[in-house]
Design goal:
Elements: H1 2-13, H2 17-33, E1 41-43, H3 49-54, H4 66-72, E2 75-77, H5 86-107, H6 117-128, H7 137-155, H8 171-181, H9 184-196, H10 199-211
Parallel strand pairs: 1-2
Length: about 220
């Protein structure tokens, strides 16, 4: 989903053969790796994305890799199932991206790499909406919510951190720190945090820098 989102954004800026090839590769990889979330018991959703993510029940015995954990997800709040209007779907997706990015600041230590996707996956969907028929916007929201909520359930920490310091640097400086760090998931979360654009989102990006193993020597 994330790779396709980047490819679509690049194509919207201008088509060329490498960008079309990247979209094809992204779609092919997504199709090959897609795992449906099925057999889910519906839980009541809270009015907001943030509170609904808080209401996601964590796995009682979180063991194994991604496929095993995904198969163990049995209950999720159905926060997006009542949406049919395309405009509402866009607004809800925007809200979800913001909530999941903010949540990483306090919960990312549960699994610093995997929990990045709770924010970056719905943001990838949000970026594609302009290239999708409007009748697909609400189903896209539902898929994005399911992915974000499932990842939240699979890797939620036992407790959030009590306090995350406010960033003392500009967005450009946060991006520079992420690029210097070098881990692709840190860079992806920072990219999404810059889309969200507020102080708490930047704090989440800096938290990813702090939690993740750097891939580029400083």
């Amino acid at each position: 989903m994330i790779r396709v989102g980047h490819a679509v954004r690049a194509l919207e800026a201008g088509e060329n053969p490498p960008r079309l090839a990247e979209l094809a590769h992204g779609l092919g990889y997504w199709a090959a790796r897609h795992r449906p979330v099925s057999g889910i018991a519906a839980l009541p959703a809270a009015p907001t994305a943030a509170r609904s993510l808080d209401a996601v029940p964590p796995l009682t015995d979180p063991t194994g890799g991604f496929p095993d954990r995904l198969a163990a997800v049995r209950r999720l709040p159905l926060w997006a199932d009542d949406v049919t209007d395309p405009g509402t779907a866009r607004a809800r997706l925007t809200e979800l991206v913001r909530a999941a990015t903010h949540r990483y600041a306090t919960h990312g230590h549960g699994e610093p790499t995997m929990l990045v996707h709770a924010a970056t996956a719905p943001n990838a969907v949000l970026r594609t909406l302009g290239s999708l028929p409007r009748e697909l916007w609400a189903p896209s929201l539902k898929a994005a919510w399911t992915a974000s909520a499932a990842v939240t359930a699979m890797y939620a920490p036992a407790e959030p951190v009590a306090h995350v310091p406010a960033p003392r640097c500009t967005p450009e400086e946060v991006l520079e720190r992420a690029l210097t760090h070098g881990d692709e998931h840190v860079v992806k979360l920072t990219d999404t945090a810059l889309d969200v654009g507020d102080e708490r989102a930047l704090a989440a990006a800096l938290r990813a820098v702090e939690l993740s193993e750097p891939l580029v020597a400083n």
